[in-house]
């Protein structure tokens, strides 16, 4: 992976004491980050009481075998907007490759493909996203709040949502129990 100052294709892990309860133990899959801003999809929490089957039925799509799959809390921005993060073995209209690590799709064609068994082999569905304006995330990265890591893509598909925060730190060689709730200054 090229060394750039941008975080596209990496994971942001909320530090203890981030100061915003919406991001407590958050894990954000960074889908876009450049000098104009950033967009990421939360993968560290699911929306209680909502399944993929519920979402599919809203689009009059028969859920098939995926009806019980969880829907993730993607972030506080546009919580009615859906996203699918998935393996690169499927691409549809407006699918975006994310640094060769996963694909971001936000149109109903990916939901239809998942429901009928012709979609990507690995996927997760989220509502909402986390967004940052020009320079905002860069500023947040200089303060105590976020830890970025390339992480393993298995974090997206193999770890349960509630285990991803600890797994992300563990993959980076950090025991999250030892993290301070605030940063010091010298």
TrEMBL record:
Species this protein is from: Sphingomonas qomolangmaensis
Gene3D superfamilies with a match to the protein in the record: VC0467-like (3.40.1740.10)
Family from the record: Belongs to the UPF0301 (AlgH) family.
InterPro entries registered for this protein in UniProt: AlgH-like
Name of the protein: UPF0301 protein NMP03_05195
